[in-house]
Batch of 3 targets.
Target 1
Amino acid sequence: MPRVTVIGTGYLGLTHAVAMADLGHEVRAIDIDEEKIAKAARGEVPFFEPGLEPLLRKNLDAGRLRFTMSFEEVGRFGEVHFLCVGTPEGEAGHADLSFVRAAADALAPQLTAQCLIVGKSTVPPGTARQVLGQLRAIAPAGQQVEVAWNPEFLREGHAVQDSLAPDRIVLGVTSDWAEALMRQVYAAQLAAGSPLLVTDLETAELVKVAANAFLATKISFINAMAEICEQAGADVMPLAEALGLDARIGRRFLSPGLGYGGGCLPKDVRGFRATAADLGVTSVVDLLGTVDAINVGRRDRVVTLARETIGGTLAGRRVAVLGIAFKPNSDDVRDSPSLEICDRLVAEGAVVSVHDPVAMPTAAAKRPGLVYAPSVFDAAQGADLVLHLTEWADYQAIDPAALAEVVAQPVIIDARCCLDAPLWTAAGWTMHVLGRP
């Protein structure tokens, strides 16, 4: 098996390093953040991802996975180097490639023999060839250094399974040697039936952003239909079911609600839009601008509905918020619709009490001024309004009759359209569901 290194131990990098080790590879992972490396070496995962920490400890104990801060060590050790650094949203929506370039600069002087640098970070087309030129200009191995691009498709909350048994593997390569080497790296997944698509570099770079743009478009479309339903007196849920039965459309991700958030979809939609603008493709610019606007508009709708529901003003009103992570099974609050709504409620004078099964410590680091409650019932104590903003299974299991006993007014907005409305109304709640009569 080829020896593997992973550069960057954030969400993507740490998950990928653990998965590679669990598949039997000898892995060295590197980061410039000493605290990250120290935690990982102790078997600690600094974010919430089901199943990842025990797998990390298993592979540390087996000796297949080690962490370092030495680029000299990883350069000497690895045959395949995975670039897993962040590409955050930069100016005018463009992906910030400074971490990619810095990683390449740090690694290049250590590349003294034939090797393959494999990008997994989400980047605009043309980045891989730029990185290749950057590496070959510095690396002692010169033309023996090759670059491939292998986009990641991890879903937060399902990242371990997505790494060990991906639903597709996309490889952008420039030589038969690089393809053959990557087939060795992914031999276990390929043997288990994961589909493989081999492309040029530019196509591989586009796959991730195109996939996320399509997914975001599907989510925004059904949310636009929810707005139509509210105005027409229709019900978006059976509408979504009817659309989903069409084999050309499908039901997955055709779920109305508060919209998408997190560290990928919003960033990738805006980054892809910026790339399209650079390339002069106005149809994509217009389409993705509308998708983004619809998504942000769902947050506006919840704030407006909250204000209308409790008499036209939020000032001095107590609001309980259920869910602060951008999605369930995650502690990620990046571009969280819930967190933005909390900010706006507070700005209008509401007293906001928040509960989330795992994301409160992460949220508290970013918004220390919010009130974080240890339980749903603590959050709802004396509340004039309850907002259901993240679709944790915990919240679908709430006894609405018991919760009604602790609130000031039994009024709830289900912004995720997944609570049992008849059960809640039978318990005396006034219930508002986005897109439903």
Target 2
Amino acid sequence: MAGDLPDYYFRIRDNGATAFRLDHENRNRRIEMEEIATINLRNGSIKPHGDRVLTAEDLARITEWIAARSDLLARREIDDIHRAVDQMNLTAQWVQTRATDAALDEVTDPLLLAMHDLRAALVRRKADRLTRDKADQGQC
């Protein structure tokens, strides 16, 4: 089992993680987790734990984890949007086929406001992209 364990472990927390170095080859045959740093994904900061000085290997592994975690979170965010599109389609089907008047009274205004807000944001961003693309092509 010890041979299969990584040398570092990252405990996920809000906006980052706590990094641990694992020692699984000690004389007690126990897995020791030594806290080495706190990572903030929002601003990219890496703060060594206590008076610790991080080694080049520590920094390399933490930087690799930050890149992999950021990529994973970006992929999850896009997947969530695709799920929202699916949910909107299912909601339209529900409204058309199964919704009661009482259920519609409960959800119509919040849905309409959310859809109006989303539409406005999408139209504004698309217009910005089109304007920027024309400017980049020298057509503005």
Target 3
Amino acid sequence: MAGRWRAKLGYAAWLLGVGGLGAWLLFVGVRSADAWRFLKTPHLGFNGRVHRADSALGFAAVPGARGLHTFPIGPPFPMQYDEQGFRIPAYESPTRPLRRPLVLSLGCSYTYGDGCPAETTFAWRVAERLGGTSLNAGKCAYGLAQMLLLARELIPKHRPEIVLAQQSPWLVGRGLSGFARATFGSVPVPYFSGVGDVSRVAPPVFRTRLFDLPLQRYDNPRRGVAEFASFAWSVGLPLFAHDDVQLLRYHARRLAGRIPEPATDDAAVVLSAYRELHALAQGAGALLVVVRLSHPLDYSPPPLGGLSREPGVVVVRAQEVLNRRVPEATKEAYQRRFAHWRGEPPQLVDTHPNPAAHAVIADEIVAAIERAR
């Protein structure tokens, strides 16, 4: 009798295990199909292996990498990083000489110049206007924690004359979430932790697998069962198996108190981070230029307290200037002037600042620097 019950329990456990495995494999298949469809249709993004996993930053540029910016409509255009991971125009040499003054730029896709050739971004234009070299360290999806880590490394190393630091409402949220926004897959990133010492930055909770897999092999319009099966085996299964295991470990460790909790005071984090940026700039003899950018017609980057009145700090209210250039004061009118449009008739393909917006921002920054001299 006992043996019969053990057999039944064993069979039930086997069914549960097989059923659970089958459900998980189905879930992997669904997620793989979503990722595959994204790659097989025209989309915003990068084509080429231009980013890699990074133990401190979550992800970073591949030094000297060349790739393409892709769009839902119209042809792609080339992009490039130099040998140190700074964004440069496609026509530049990745081993370019650096001419002073050096202008180090820190921020997210707004600073990187998503949708724009590098030579049309405010980071490049400011350096050109000053007769120097642009060190554009902005990266799409970066947050305030990554900006601060880069500042700690790059300001003492290069001792730039100018540090352009983007300030936007979403940067602090990204610096607290611990995960970057990604179309698919998990990309852990550094985050601010603790309550008292809010400038303490915790490392990514695990290493992403996304940049190790052959995504570029499938970033094309080829379709078919064999193509999907190859993608699911080479990308989907290893990516989602890795992510699911690591996320289970992450949640278990967090419940056990083995992972630092994110900081909770957004305003304190912002003030502390930009004060440290100021101290790093001062230590190198650099002028800190805080470039305030936000959503269209928004005026609400987090306050900087008394920092904006400190010597060696210039605050450029770039979003306010852009807003004033749109007399209609509507989001639609703003996007017609300062977003990215392609096709015939023109269609909105990207809401990031376009080259015209970057030119306005650069003018304001250069004017502010000249007034501060």
